[in-house]
Amino acid sequence: MVSKKLLYSFIPLIFIFLTNPVHAAEKQSDIYEQRMAVYKKTEALTQVPWYYLAAIDQYERQIQKDKDDHIVSISIPEEIWYGLGNSTLSKDTIIIDLFNGQGKDGNGDGKADAEDPEDILYTIATIILQYGITDDEIRIALWNYYKRDLTVQTIKNTAKVLKKFQHVNLTDRDFPVSIRHNYSYRSTWGDRRGFGGLRIHEGTDIFAGYGTPVKSTTYGVIEMKGWNLYGGWRIGIRDIFNIYHYYGHLNGYADNIKVGQVVKPGDELGSVGSSGYGPPGTSGKFPPHLHYGMYKDNGHSEWSFDPYPYLRKWERMAKAK
Hints:
Layout: H1 4-46, H2 50-63, H3 78-81, H4 93-98, H5 117-129, H6 135-146, H7 149-165, E1 183-185, E2 192-193, E3 199-200, E4 204-208, E5 213-215, E6 220-228, E7 232-239, E8 243-253, E9 262-263, E10 268-272, E11 289-297, E12 302-305, H8 308-320
Antiparallel strand pairs: 1-4, 2-3, 4-11, 5-10, 6-7, 6-9, 7-8, 8-10, 8-11, 11-12
């Protein structure tokens, strides 16, 4: 028989176990609300659209994992914030201005703090304002700040998604083929492939019958559509987490699918086929399947990684709906 003393010792543990998921969910929801509040406030002060500010923040959050839990994750280089030659690193705006630094006071406390969310966003907004607030002017501002085309494209795509859905808590996912159809898959990332020269398989093959619907797994923008020697009829989607999703060997595309289109989890992209390994229209050189690949960008380079663990998770989520 369990003693009362031992039983009571378990009560705090049980309480923590039961309440922690709720607290974690509330904390996560709260941080999204805080982010939206500071984005909207900065937009009101500067007229820079909030979704561009949020997209810059989202981009930097993915390349600076140590700032995942920050309200704002943008890190502005010291030489830009404080000005060249300013070794004092003083938060005093007068001193920063003296050295032609860009750091600004966004919350009215008289200091430009590189760790304060409102100061950071106000500063990045004023950098953009030097060029203007139209889409083309913001593109130029982003290129002059980051000096990298893929970074600019990723931020522009994310801003487009956030503008459409009007919030930043976009964490839903879906499985890339219809779970109402028969399909099978296993981990095939890294396997050897011979067509076109010895190379590794950069994805997971999901085998299914011709015509099985292929769906978007994520929120994102269609960045690529058309024929590829290896992937046949394929689609590439850039999501809001700096990840490029590749769908290969399609049998065809869904109606009205086009480059630049914003998609959400579950949107139909096309259907399973066996296209590829030859000139446009080549099909049937292997059993019908979807090749699904994922590529991560860290702000400097892009590389493929194993999608299998994510597919298993998204499959469970799809079946639970």
